[in-house]
């Protein structure tokens, strides 16, 4: 089977250089917080180009995944492995890539026999959640044998394993979001209502807030500085943010249609 893995190149160098020039023009020092945060992203983010290696053999398997606190059931996750890359992609969430030098070990993992079994990726990437699991309906040991047969051999030392440190987000940011969320609900219920006393579109504001904050946190360094604690990467909570986006996005669409067609309430 032909591989679908791009070669890794230093594609973030332009972004980093542009940031450093902008930062220097503002008089920031080389040890300022934004330099440190961008350094974390450059060091640990996956950087790909459109150059593909079509000769590399791969194996793949369909299953579920657990990324930090977020679980996705079968068949929404796909594991693809070659001798030089391991990729875990989950529909509607995100993709997580590893080199052999970033993986400590691949372990059979099980909570309930025959129902919650899979492979845990014990890795050395601080920008990823410590717990990353691929749920597999088949025999995990057989899948591990296939992975070894494909030539993927973890080489990261055990001492480099990424472990739980602390919750990545600032509690003040979470409390502020909860206050604004509840405030929007109160304003929406007290504000003008539509025909036949139906709720107006403003009642969707809390959902829109959650969607935009989740999307903006993944994209904006400024929001990341406000929300994340020092030394943490947005990749640690990216799966949770994506899940919030999916749920609030679907609810926004459904409730908007119901409101606009006068079937709400």
Spell out the blueprint of helices and strands.
Layout: E1 6-8, H1 13-25, H2 33-44, E2 48-52, E3 59-67, E4 70-81, E5 86-90, E6 95-98, E7 103-112, E8 116-123, E9 132-135, H3 140-149, H4 171-190, H5 205-219, H6 221-227, H7 238-260
Antiparallel strand pairs: 1-2, 3-4, 3-9, 4-5, 5-6, 7-8, 8-9
Summarize the model shown.
By secondary structure, this protein is an alpha+beta fold. 38% of the residues lie in helices and 23% in strands.
Give a written overview of the molecule.
- Helix 4 runs antiparallel to helix 5 and helix 5 (205-219) runs antiparallel to helix 7.
- It is built from 7 helices and 9 strands; from the N terminus they run E-H-H-E-E-E-E-E-E-E-E-H-H-H-H-H.
- A hairpin with a 4-residue loop joins strand 5 (86-90) and strand 6.
- The chain is of the alpha+beta class and 265 residues long.
- The protein has 3 domains: 6-52, no CATH class; 59-160, Pleckstrin-homology domain (PH domain)/Phosphotyrosine-binding domain (PTB) (PH-domain like, Roll); 171-260, no CATH class.
- Residues 1-22 and 34-52 have low confidence and may be disordered.
- Helix content is 38%, strand content 23%.
- The longest helix has 23 residues, at 238-260.
- The strands form 2 sheets. It has a 7-stranded antiparallel β-sheet with strand order 6-5-4-3-9-8-7.
